[in-house]
Amino acid sequence: MAMADDSKSVECICCDRKVVEVDPKTWKLFNEMVPKERYDEQIEPVEMPHVKSTVLKKLLTYSVRISDTTCSSDVLKTWIYDEFLHGEERLTSLMDLIKVADYLDLQSLYAGVIQYVEDKSQEEISYMVRNEDLRSLLKIVKSALYYLEETEKLWSAVRSLLMKSKEEFSQMIAKEDILGLIKLIEVAKPLSYEKLCKAVHNLILSKSIDQLSLEIHNQNLKALIKIFRVARAEKLQTLQDMVVQYVFDKSDEELVQMVSTELPCYQSIYLDVAQYLRVGTTEAEEIFNWPSNETLNQKIPIEEEAGDGSKKKDGWMAKEEEDQD
Fold it and tell me: Model-level pTM?
């Protein structure tokens, strides 16, 4: 167990497969903060499949701070603003922290980071997203819709980066391989970015069989499962069949090798799913079904028709116009 030797640092392996070493005292405080997770009962290296290494380091710092019994809620909030989050230049990092705080039910941290993000000016947000690629920007929007109450400043900051024509999107994604394109669909679909989804579809359909085959052969099993799942949902039959054939041709030993770099807690899951792919079955609906978009779509303000036929731009997600082609 991870607490067998109180004098030894504990190794944690995060979802980005990076190892974080935690000193015994901090490890104890961290587990007192999240007792339901029972991380201290795991055998090392302790797997944290929902936590990035950068986020874990933040959580460890936070656990030490809140262990101070003299730390009032007002003092904690000031510390979060002035020290804990001060200097954080990437909005994606803050969104990652919000998601994990929600998952671990750390209410004070969750509320504090959300307030910190919502207090940012449009100019500050623009600076924080200046180097993000298209997929990262979409993930920020998706997280904002789910977690934030105040989204107007964020949308104003990213609007010019995301409101593109299908042709502009096509140019932006021209160099993406099949996994990159699938990941774009995965995040754009729940946000109703139809122009981007159409641009991705067109690019996938424009790839030759040889090119698709080469790109598929460069993927690990986790990526192949993702490609199959989205291809099935998007009715990309040729791509779906190519993934099935590629997995079918692999031996059991080769499949094991394809998941060797994944967290052990996921390896058996991916191997089980691979058995469905090998025979092309769709019996396991819960594995391959596309997630419901209802929650996000209900929160996305869209352009509404005014009485004179013009559009009122009340929201920060404009409704996509139907393409002519």
Answer: 0.83
